[in-house]
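Write out this protein's structure.
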Amino acid sequence: MTDARDERRPAGQLEASVMAALWAAGAPQTPGQVQLGLGAGLARTTVTTILTRLHDKGIVDRRRQGRGYAYFPVQDAQGLTARRMHTELDRDSDRETVLARFVAQLSADDERILRDLLEPPAE
């Protein structure tokens, strides 16, 4: 039988949880404050490691608070999703094909939204 402490979370799940806690807080948070906000029984050192990794990726910024740092998101959730989409697009040298396949797989509603964004109404 596996102990719950030994079960590893899927990659990115902890980062997503930390980001959700930062967005919900609406103000810079220390690792200890994030740990309390998560209520997941994580060690403060684990939360600090996650925040440091997010900072290294440019997803959060930080400012000095006492002897440590308080962290805050650089973007909202939608901005982060857009950033991930750009990162994926940048991984392939054939942008045109990637974009064509992306658009081909859009739902009718998403296609309409994209058209509206790319073709503003004539005045």
